[in-house]
Specification:
It is a single chain. The protein has 347 residues and is of the alpha+beta class. The chain folds into two domains: 142 residues, PurM-like, N-terminal domain (60s Ribosomal Protein L30, Chain: A, 2-Layer Sandwich), CATH 3.30.1330.10; 176 residues, Phosphoribosyl-aminoimidazole Synthetase, Chain A, domain 2. Helices cover 36% and strands 24% of the residues. The strands form three sheets. The protein has an eight-stranded mixed beta sheet, with helices on both faces. Strands 3-6-4-5 form a four-stranded mixed beta sheet, covered by helices on one side. It has a two-stranded antiparallel ribbon with strand order 1-2. Helix 2 runs parallel beside helix 3 and helix 4 crosses helix 5. It is globular. The protein binds adenosine-5'-diphosphate (ADP) and magnesium ion. The site of adenosine-5'-diphosphate has 12 residues, from helix 1, strand 4 and strand 5. Adenosine-5'-diphosphate binds next to helix 1, strand 4 and strand 5.
């Protein structure tokens, strides 16, 4: 017996051997999947629905750091961030394809771990992995996922549909993923400098927000159940401020956010304070929360009011009113994609 993990070089299997190995673990469950891995292209039957297609790329050193990101989590997250975009169209994701650039630094076992996470996400969200591409990379790992979903034309929700006076609503809470990243980076630099083991105790919630985010399929289902169709929607990958401005700009409107309304988990809040960061700024600009941001007509307020998963954070205004943040004292600030002006001045 030995402790050394099995390490099979990619070259031992070759590209086709690797694809075969990965494909052997893929199960297809979507009725709309006609043909999965194994031909020149996958075949999908949209059955008269509109298809939505979206791609997101994750690049080592830019979007993730393998020093603290386990491969299985990375695989899970790579799928989830794409599905989040499909839900943000108010569509149901059905298939994904996965393109990988791998350096010979990674053994076959590492790629299998990555796929374990991807297939777990596929199973959880009921989507089929139907194809992809595999090539070599001279440096880091690159993962490009394409997600394909479907909806009726009437169900689809675009960014540009918001109306003046519509309420701006966000799901869940904000800033957690960013604070999780701050904790991971702090512990990584402590480890690099002193060799001390990372102290992550008590940070479970924000670490999970960063390392194992979920796409808000439940919110899409909730809104259907409440009989509320958003007028515009976007998922929060960059930060509330930036996404709110996207909706406003696409819809030809202004937007007004209220600091006191921003949903921030107490642990996120306290960790931000410990790091000498403004929790409001973390919520506005933190990014990677993968919550949904959407607008609803005022008439729908009764239906969403008091729901613990939904928070009204502001409303849409006419274009001339611009993009504004109202602070807790009632003062008004220009909202920018980076957050708000006070943050920028602090540098
Ligand atoms: P081609 O030369 O036509 O691009 P490939 O040999 O790249 O074909 O791919 C063969 C099959 O394996 C295709 O169905 C493709 O979608 C699938 N495939 C290739 N790489 C991956 C991967 N990383 N994950 C899942 N499927 C893959
Ligand atoms: Mg190919």
């Amino acid at each position: 017996m030995t402790d050394t993990p099995l390490r099979t070089e990619l070259s031992a299997l070759g590209e086709f051997g690797l694809i075969e190995r990965l494909a052997s673990r893929v199960q297809l469950t979507q009725p709309s999947t006609v043909k999965g891995i194994g031909d020149d292209a996958a075949v999908i039957d949209p059955s008269g629905l509109h298809q939505v297609v979206t791609t997101d790329m994750l690049v080592e050193g830019v979007h993730f750091d393998l020093a603290y990101m386990p491969l299985k989590h990375l695989g899970y997250k790579a799928i989830v961030v794409n599905l989040s975009d499909v839900y943000a169209m108010n569509a149901e994701p059905r298939q994904v394809t996965v393109a990988l650039a791998l350096s010979n630094r990674f053994p076959v076992e590492a790629v299998e771990e990555l796929y374990e996470g991807m297939l777990l996400a596929c199973k959880h969200y009921g989507v089929d992995l139907v194809g992809g591409d595999t090539c070599s990379s001279r440096s880091g790992l690159v993962i490009a996922v394409t997600a394909i979903g479907a909806a009726t034309a009437g169900e689809l929700v675009y960014r540009n549909g918001a109306g003046e006076h519509d309420l701006l609503v966000v799901s869940g809470d904000l800033g957690g993923a960013y604070m999780g990243l701050q904790v991971l980076e702090r512990e990584k630099s402590v480890f690099t400098e002193t060799g001390a083991q990372p102290d992550l105790a008590g940070h479970d919630y924000i670490l999970e927000r960063q390392l194992k985010p979920e796409a808000r399929r439940d919110i899409i289902a909730l809104l259907k159940q409440l009989g509320v169709k958003p007028t515009a929607m976007i998922d929060i990958s960059d930060g509330l401020a930036s996404e709110a401005i996207h909706i406003a700009r696409s819809s030809g409107l202004g937007v007004r956010l209220y600091d006191e309304k921003l949903p921030i988990d107490p642990h996120t809040y306290n960790t931000a304070r410990d790091f000498n960061l403004d929790p409001t700024v973390c919520a506005l600009s933190g990014g990677e929360d993968y919550e949904l941001l959407f607008t609803v007509r005022q008439a729908d307020f009764e239906a969403i009011k008091g729901n613990p998963n939904l928070t009204v954070v502001g409303h849409m205004t006419d274009a001339n009113s611009g993009y504004r943040l109202v602070d807790k004292q009632g003062g008004e600030h220009e909202l920018t994609a980076q957050g708000w002006d006070a943050f920028l001045k602090k540098g």
